[in-house]
């Protein structure tokens, strides 16, 4: 059997570890061959592929990014499923492992369930917003980078007696903001799932200041205060027409300074959270998921993806995983609120 592997959508730490785990398991356990598909669905539509051997994946566990490249090409563009079938036949590809987030897996599920293509999935998103898996690889690295960054910003905030606002990724869910904010002892944590008023934000900042602290505010990019109709976006649209979120920290900074009298600065971490070497946790999780994906291919369970349940790797339907986002639950918000201010 020859398996094609692609990485699609936003990149994240651990992608290369998935590729390595899949290739090594497939070759050593089953004698499978592998084909690398460049830049996600684009490579499968444009026949941009190359053979993947053991030597190509050596030393990849700790390497960030993806050796295959990635893109946001839609799987139903450029001829869609029929074109994919042609490319798979031409390259003797018997199955495809699609590694990606919500959009990638939604497309992969449709290809498998509706079109009958032999596709399985591996869940990846630094936002940790995919349902039917406890964690996605890339998330632990992102929250660790955010936590370290907040720790560093705290020292300069204390030196200059300032309030610091740190904007982290999180379009619709606030897992990175929640975890990094809680880990770093932030005084205000602002999540898309739980809008709060401007007055509440000012109160949290003032409470920390009155105790002699330099206030730290951690905000997810998709947060919108109560009374604001839309999320803040000052970066226009990407080439696919998707709104580029970002700017909530810059929106809040002058308001906090005006209403509290505390000098306030904003920092946007942005793609720093996606880059660099994955943590040990993400390396291990990604490797295990890649190995499990090969087993799903072996059993011809098309439309399934490898998932994390507790500490076990399980199999779930890709369509079920993208039915709804995994939001921060109310009890986690209630838990952290007591620490704010």
Characterize this entry briefly.
With 341 residues, this protein is of the alpha/beta class. Helix content is 40%, strand content 17%.
Protein model, in words:
The protein has 341 residues and is an alpha/beta fold. Helix 1 crosses helix 10 and helix 6 (139-160) crosses helix 7. Helix content is 40%, strand content 17%. The strands form three sheets. The chain has a five-stranded mixed β-sheet, sandwiched between helices. The model has no long low-confidence stretch (mean pLDDT 94). Strand 1 (2-7), helix 1 (15-30) and strand 2 (33-37) form a beta-alpha-beta unit. It has two domains: 2-137 and 278-321, Rossmann fold (3-Layer(aba) Sandwich), CATH 3.40.50.450; 139-274, Phosphofructokinase domain (Rossmann fold). The chain has helices at 15-30, 41-46, 54-57, 80-90, 102-113, 139-160, 175-184, 198-210, 248-260, 280-298, 318-321, 330-337; strands at residues 2-7, 33-37, 49-52, 95-100, 119-123, 163-168, 188-190, 216-220, 264-268, 304-309, 312-317. It is found in: Cytoplasm. It holds the Pfam family PFK. This is ATP-dependent 6-phosphofructokinase.
- C-alpha Rg (nearest Å): 21 Å
Number of strands: 11
Biggest sheet statistics: 5 strands, mixed
Number of domains: 2
- The general outline is elongated
CATH class of the largest domain: Alpha Beta
Distance separating the two termini: 58 Å
Question: Mind telling me which CATH architecture of the largest domain this is?
Answer: 3-Layer(aba) Sandwich
> Which structural class should the secondary elements be placed in?
alpha/beta
Helix percent band: 40-55%
**β-strand amount:** 15-25%
How is the CATH topology of the largest domain named? Rossmann fold
Succession of helices and strands: EHEHEHHEHEHEHEHEHEHEEHH
Low-confidence stretches: none
Biggest sheet strand order reads: 3-2-1-4-5
| Nearest-integer average pLDDT | 94
